[in-house]
Amino acid sequence: MAGYDTGDVAELLKQIGSNAALLADAYVYGSIAGDQLEAGKLNLLQKKGLLRPDDEPGDYRVTAELKRMLNRLMRKQSSYRQLTDMGKVIDALDDTVQDFRLSTQSNEQDDAEYYLDQLDDLLYEAKENLNVSLDNMHYAITSQFGFVSTLSAKVRENEKALDYAQKLLTELQQIDPEACYEWANWACPVDFARKISGFIYWFKQILGRLRYIIDNMRLSLFRLRRDEKQASLLRNMARYLRKHPEFEINEAIFEDPNLIKPLKFAPPMKLKSYVDVHNTAVEEPLIRLVQALRKQSVPGSTRERETSVVDNSPTENIIAQHDYFEEQVEHLFEQAITTGNVISAISYWQQSIPAWAKSSQDIAPKAWIELVFSCYCKLTNEQQDALDIKMKGELVNGTSANYSYRDVHILLKE
Questions:
Q1: How many C-beta atoms surround the C-beta of residue 188 within 10 A?
Q2: Is the dihedral of CA 237, 242, 245, 248 positive or negative?
Q3: By the 8 A CB rule, do 400 and 189 touch?
Q4: At what angle do helices 109-142 and 151-173 cross, to 10 degrees?
Q5: Intra-chain end-to-end CA distance of the chain, in Å
Q6: The whole model's pTM is what?
Q7: pLDDT digit string (tens) for 252-310?
Q8: Non-local CB neighbours of 286 within 8 Å, separated by 6+ positions
C-alpha cells in the first residue's frame, strides 16, 4: 500500500464527505438531475469516479463501484454474478430481461423498477469493464509497453496482450448481437428499448475497435522483435570488440607519423543510395537497365465505339401549378411574423372559411392542421429558427407516447 499517495486518498474521502447528501440521493432514488449541480462539482465527481451519466440526458447515477460498496455496507442484495466473460454477461442480461418483462406484464411496478435498475447496472458494468480493458491495451501499445524497461520484457508483454486480445475477439465473434433485439420484441417501455438498442450498437462498435487494436499489436510485436534482434547484434559486436582491443581505433590516429600521406589528405568518399539522374554519364546505362526491367505490355482488343441517337426535340415549357391552400399557410406564417402574436391554425381556418367559400375552396380541419405542420417542416433552417410551433393534443388511451393533436400554434421566437 506504500505505492498509494495519502493525499489522493484523503481528497477522495473528502469529496465523498462533502457531497454525502447528493450521493445518497443518487443512490436511493436511482438518479439525480444534473441541472441542479454546478458544472465544476459535476466534473469533479465524475473525475473521482463517484458519478456517471445516465441514459436520460442531464441525469447522473452513482458508479457501479460505489454502488456495490454501499450495497455491501447496507446489507442490500446485490448482483451475485461475476462478469468474467461476455457469454456470462449475455446470460445475466437475459435473466434480468425476463424478470423485468414478467414484472411489467404483471403490473408489479416496484419489482419492474428494481429489475430495470439491475439491468442498467449490468449493462454499464459490462461496457465499463470491456472499455477499460481496451483502453489499457491501447495505452500499452502507444506507450510501447513502457511499464517494463527491457526489450525482451516488452516482447513478452506484447505477446501476452496479443494472445488475450485474439481470444477475446474469438469469444465476442461467437455472439450475435442481433439476437438481443428479441429482448425488446414485446410492448416494452421506451427506456427499456433504448437501453437494449444502445447495448447492441455499442457491441458492434467494440468489435471494430478490438480488430484495430489487434492489428496495431501485431505491428508493434514485429517492431519490437526487430529492435530486439538489432540490440542483440549490437551487444554481440560490443562483446567481441571488448575481447579484441586491437580493433579499437585510436582517436588521435590522424596525428600518427606512420600514417601514409594519401590517407591523411584523402577526400571524403561520395556514397549515395540513389541514382543521380542529372549525371549524363549514367544516362545511357540507366535507360538500358529500365528497358530491360520493363514488362512488355499486352495490347488489348479494341472495342468498337457504341453509337446512339441524340434527341434534339425542343424543350417544352410547363406552367407551374399553383396550390391555393399552401398560399393560405404562407399568409398564416406572415401574420404570425407581422403581428408577433400566437396564431392558432384552427382559429385561422374558422376565420377564413367564408373567404375560401367565395373562391369555391374547401378543406377539412384535420387536413388543414396536417398541411400547416407539413409546410413548417419544409421551411429552411433559418426560417424554422425564426418561427416556433406548438402542438396541442391529448395522449391516446392505451399508449405511452402517442398523441392526438387538435390544433397547431405558430408564434415568433423571441
A1: 18
A2: positive
A3: yes
A4: 150
A5: 60
A6: 0.44
A7: 776 778 877 766 665 556 666 677 767 777 778 888 877 877 765 566 677 777 787 87
A8: 275, 277
SS percent in the chain: helix, strand, coil, step 5? 60, 5, 30
Q: Among 8, 123, 4, 18, which Cα is nearest to 61's?
A: 123
Which is it for the CA torsion 411, 412, 413, 414, positive or negative? negative
State the DSSP code for 255: G
Q: At what angle do helices 6-18 and 20-29 cross, to 10 degrees?
A: 70
Tens digits of per-residue pLDDT, 321-334?
Answer: 678 888 888 888 88
Query: Cell 516482447, residue?
Result: 155
What is the rounded distance in angstroms from the CA atom of residue 78 to the CA atom of residue 118?
A: 9
CB-count burial class (<10 Å; 0-12, 13-18, 19+) for 89: buried
Distance CA 53, CA 24 (A): 16
Grid coordinates in use for 73? 455496507
Q: Can you tell me whether residue 273 is helix, strand or coil? A: coil
C-alpha cell at 399: 399508449
Q: How many CB atoms lie within 10 A of CB 231?
A: 13
How far CA 243 is from CA of 6, 85, 250, in Å, comes to: 52, 55, 16
